Structure prediction request, 71 residues.
Amino acid sequence: PLKKIAQLHICRNDINENGIAYDAHLAPDENDWNEIKDLLNKYNTIKYLTIEYYKNTEVLIKLLKQLKELL
Prediction:
């Protein structure tokens, strides 16, 4: 249940050629950041945030800065 959530894994999914969503570890977009913000505001049980993005160090640093601003 969401009311017991302790950790968020942050990344964007993708859709394969069969129309099935999968965990692609893409950089979060504006919609993702808005959803993260909403979840953090709604559930005070969230203590840990993990960005799951490994493709580009410079992008990862930018994402970490965005996350810090969100907090």
